[in-house]
Structure formats: C-alpha cells, structure tokens
C-alpha cells in the first residue's frame, strides 16, 4: 500500500508505504514506489516539492528513487529530481 497526499502540483508527500510482513523482501515496496514515482514524473513539474518521512531501515529504498535527507540526522527526505 502507498499513497501521495498534497495539492497534486506544488507539494506532495509520500505516505503509508506498507507491505505485510509475510510479503516483505519480495520487491513489493519497490513496485509501490515505482508506481508512485511514475505518477509524480508524469503529472507534476520539476517545481513540485516531494517529501516523505522514513524509518531508518527504509532509507535505502527511498534513496534508490532519488530521495535525499533534507537535513543531517533528519527522518525527513526530499526528492532530488534530476535536472
């Protein structure tokens, strides 16, 4: 499960990324993120601020989709969209 909240144009937050424990480690989190990121890339401009809050064990997943820590030791991450 996963969803985006926000105004759909300037501000979006990735929330509720969850996979049942018995289905974890099967790549489902990556599939969810890929679908959300495809929607973001097709429906927003490069000015859209995309953020999320991550638990430590999920940071590598989000980093693989272009998210970076928004400040040192912060749980928040923002999408560093390629120019």
UniProtKB/TrEMBL annotation:
Superkingdom: Eukaryota
Pfam families: Acetyltransf_7 (PF13508)
Entries under InterPro entries matching the protein: Acetyltransferase_Butenolide, Acyl_CoA_acyltransferase, GNAT_dom
Keywords: Transferase
CDD domains, alphabetized: NAT_SF (cd04301)
Domain N-acetyltransferase: 1-83
Keyword Transferase found: yes
Keyword Transferase: yes
SUPFAM superfamilies associated with the record: Acyl-CoA N-acyltransferases (Nat)
Molecular-function annotations in GO: acyltransferase activity, transferring groups other than amino-acyl groups
Alphabetical list of Gene3D superfamilies matching this protein: 3.40.630.30
A biological-process GO annotation: UDP-N-acetylglucosamine biosynthetic process
Protein name, entry field: Acetyltransferase
């Amino acid at each position: 499960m996963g969803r985006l909240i926000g105004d759909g144009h300037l501000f979006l937050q990735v929330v509720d990324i969850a996979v049942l424990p018995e289905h974890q480690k099967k790549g489902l989190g990556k599939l969810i993120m890929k679908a959300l990121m495809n929607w973001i890339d097709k429906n927003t401009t490069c000015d859209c601020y995309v953020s999320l809050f991550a638990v430590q064990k999920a940071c590598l997943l989000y980093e693989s989709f272009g998210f970076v820590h928004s400040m040192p030791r912060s749980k928040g991450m923002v999408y560093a969209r390629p120019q």
